Amino acid sequence: MTVHSVFLMDDHPVVLRGLAELVGMEADFRIAGATTDGAGAFAMIDRVKPDIAVLDINLPDVSGLALLRRLRGTGLAVRPIFLTATITPAQVSEAVANGIWGILLKESAPDALIDCLRKVAKGQRWLSDEIARMADPVWDEDMAPGLSALTPREMEIAGHACRGLSNKLIARELGASEGTVKIHLHNIFQKLRITNRTALAAIYYERAAEVKGDGSKG
């Protein structure tokens, strides 16, 4: 059984303790870290590198959306989830646009959080029907993004990555910094809903085979 690491952030200590106890009871999850300090959450996530981070969107010292954007701009493979008391349609849309993996309300049943965590751990996104309808465009979990979701630059980087080039070598090929390549790869993984180069190669070469097959029919 694979055990997935989970990071927890909530500005209410009682809520945070309850979350830690709830998640800690499940054999397939372990608590990698927890904090009530929104401002220091990014540094902690960067240090412990959890598989999943459960975050509050409305915090007194930092916006959960700002933290989400910052996570997306790094090479961290963490999958963020928002657990919040309230959320607006605009916040849902922005969260979806910035690669959120799940959103649920604190009024949800405890089992809903565990279900969400397990689905996200498997590489699937999770939103309740009510929250999904708030998104613009409307969220559809069955939409499987393909290579068409990538920009030309991202396609170029994906091709180099699938040929086995390191980030350093890709950067040299493109005349860019290694940090820029890492950011592009992170965005590629988010768009394709994957977490590693192996999954990227599977999608890339499957599409290449389809194109070759279509060409041979002509």
From TrEMBL:
Chain positions with 4-aspartylphosphate modification: 56
UniProt cross-references to InterPro entries, sorted A to Z: CheY-like_superfamily, NreC/VraR/RcsB-like_REC, Sig_transdc_resp-reg_C-effctor, Sig_transdc_resp-reg_receiver, Tscrpt_reg_LuxR_C, WalR-like
Response regulatory domain span: 5-121
Keyword Phosphoprotein included in the entry's annotation: yes
Entry's Gene Ontology BP terms: phosphorelay signal transduction system; regulation of DNA-templated transcription
Residue ranges of every copy of the HTH luxR-type domain listed in the record: 143-208
PROSITE patterns associated with the record: HTH_LUXR_2 (PS50043), RESPONSE_REGULATORY (PS50110)
Organism ancestry: Bacteria, Pseudomonadati, Pseudomonadota, Alphaproteobacteria, Sphingomonadales
Full protein name: Response regulator
GO molecular function, one term: DNA binding
PANTHER family on file: TWO-COMPONENT RESPONSE REGULATOR
SMART domains: HTH_LUXR, REC
UniProtKB keywords: DNA-binding, Phosphoprotein
Species of the source: Sphingobium quisquiliarum P25
A Pfam family that the UniProt record links to this protein: GerE
